[in-house]
Amino acid sequence: MKKIILSVITIFLLLTAISLDVSAAKKSAKLSKEDIAEMSDTIDRLTQKIYGRALLSPADNEELIGIKIRLDNQMLMASNPSLAPLYFKAGNIYKLREMKPEAIECYQTVLENFSETALAPKARAALEQMGVEIAAPKPTGDEEAEEDGGV
To answer: For the chain, what is the mean pLDDT?
Structure first.
């Protein structure tokens, strides 16, 4: 009888784990243009609230955290330059709210993953303004050869 109960519990736990994996996979699916536009609108609304000296509600905080999680999940799958403004704007919100570690993470993501965008220099300036020391990117093999005199 114990074996049957343990088997049923094990099967139940396995099915639960599988369903959680499937739902997580659906949530982490590639962001559509509409998703990105919606997140941008939400970040703009939160920025307006902060500049208007309004306090963010717990629901606002949840939205911001949810956006950050969705962005991070997307970055795990593939880098997309259309995410750079969202990371930068989220960094601005965190900076305005004096949440330095979160702001640094957002700005650093822009520098590391979207260095070719116009937001990279702005992210670098924001980090420098916050007193964050920014290490120069490590040269690749080709750049090292050029630095060594083309060897």
So the answer is: 82
- Residue 46 is assigned to a structural domain of this protein: yes
Integer Cα distance of 35 and 60 in angstroms: 17
Binned at pLDDT 50, 70 and 90, residue 117 comes out as very high
What's the confidence (pLDDT) of residue 134?
Answer: 82
Q: How far apart are CA 96 and CA 103, in angstroms?
A: 9
And the tokens for 79? 């880098």
In a domain, 69, yes or no: yes
Q: CB count, 10 Å around CB of 38?
A: 13
pLDDT > 60? residue 25: no
Q: Is 50 exposed, middle or buried (0-12, 13-18, 19+ CB in 10 A)?
A: middle
- Number of domains making up the chain: 1
Backbone φ and ψ of 22, nearest 5°: -65, -45
Domain that holds residue 111: 31-134
Whole-number pLDDT of residue 19? 62
Q: Is residue 50 part of a domain?
A: yes
Mean predicted confidence (pLDDT) in 36-53: 90
101 within a domain of the structure (yes/no): yes
Q: Quick one: which of 86, 80, 50 has its CA closest to 67? A: 86
